[in-house]
Amino acid sequence: MRSLSILGSTGSIGRQTLEVAETCGHRVAALTARSSVDLLEAQARKFHPILVAAAEPTAAAALACRLADTDIRVLAGEEGILAAAALPQADTVVTALVGIAGLAPTLAAIDSGKRIALANKETLVCAGPLVMARAKEKGAEIVPVDSEHSAIFQSLQGSHGKELKRILLTASGGPFFGWSREELAKVTPAHALKHPNWSMGAKVTIDSATLMNKGLELLEAMSLFGVPPEKIEILIHRESILHSAVEYCDNSVIAQLGAPDMRLPIQYALSWPHRTPGPADPLDLFTAGKLTFARPDVTTFRCLALAIQSAKEGGTAPAILNGANEVAVARFLAGEIGFLEIPRVVETALNTVPRGERLTLEAVYEADRAARAAAEAVC
Q: Is residue 199 predicted with pLDDT exceeding 70?
């Protein structure tokens, strides 16, 4: 049994983490959200954590009034999120925040020596080498929650680094697999939010539709597993049954399969190195059907090509890519730009924002700020 601080408890990953915690008997020590007062209050009353925090001060004030009849401590703003990340009574921090907003809390959890159940890929996309070095220095464990990285992590158990030949990173292809640019020009947010296999938050669902999500996951895998982009091959796997695999030097391939249910990688990040019964759906191979694989279309889906380019360039390029993409996706969801404008906005930022000479946290945040400004200017 672990004691959890769940950052982003009202989002898709956060809610499913609470299902796992309830089924498996984990203690919930802290909960945070941005502004979902009703749901955060309901979660607090059900799990009775020590601390809850809302990033928006007005939401925190409302929550404090609603929970006045309890002994739950209510905090506001970034300070509240950081306090939840470093809470002494929690041994594990589930980072389910969206975007670069997850970087500072992840570092706070690392500095406190926690196990990090990492669902916030942007932390490693923007500052992977810095985060992994800090985790090694502080003795903090980083266990991935993304289904693909969990599959890779599981497939690497018991192996040695020199035995790895390459990583096979799978992608569902999103709702628009096989579509032309002419068809994509007509896509609306409502279309893009209908993922064929997974139930996810709006931002990651749009990233899946543009294939940016797979580019971000490539960058995440580079830091998690210490491999260059040339050792990662992306495969479109429409069925979302084989969640990723590794190929070893003897040409054997080890893969992890399962139903498309995020509760399984969440549970493994909490229970590793052990396995326990849990709420995840079982996989029925008799009804799973055929498993198919295809190469991604990086010409039509430009976001993936831009992410691969940033991965090869390194430095602050991934932070620029991520910052511009966060702005572009928000504008698309608001109906202010078209689907094909997302990669155009990202590419403009990559072409105009200066690169930092060396990777530091200050350089990462400055690259993110400049990328957002460049993206806003062309949206």
A: no
Q: Produce one character per residue of 109-122: b if its CB has 16 or more CB atoms within 10 Å, e if not.
A: bbebebbbbbbbbb
Is the pTM higher than 0.90? Answer: yes
Strands 164-171 and 242-248: antiparallel
Looking at residue 198, its pLDDT comes to 67
- Of residues 149, 156, 79, 91, the one with CA closest to residue 118: 149
Q: For residue 209, give every residue at least 6 positions away whose Cβ sits within 8 Å of its Cβ, in sequence order, or none.
A: 174, 175, 176, 187, 192, 195, 339
pLDDT at 197 over 80: no
| CA of residue 134 relative to chain centroid, distance | 19
- Each residue of 38-68: pLDDT tens digit? 999 999 999 999 999 999 999 999 999 999 9
Report the distance separating Cα 242 and Cα 219, nearest Å.
20
d(CA 152, CA 156): 6
Token duo for residue 19: 């299902």
Q: Which residues pair with 33 in a beta bridge?
A: 54
Provide the residue type at 254 as one letter. I
Mean pLDDT in residue range 260-278? 96
Helices (H), 56-211: 57-66, 77-85, 103-111, 122-138, 147-155, 181-184, 189-192, 202-210
Among candidate residues 158, 190, 156, the one with its CA nearest the CA of residue 175:
190
Is residue 114 pLDDT above 90, yes or no?
Answer: yes
CA–CA gap between residue 335 and residue 290 (Å, rounded): 37
Q: What distance in Å separates the CA atoms of residue 291 and residue 257, rounded to the nearest whole number?
A: 11
For residue 377, give the amino acid letter.
A
Count other C-beta atoms under 10 Å from residue 153's C-beta.
24
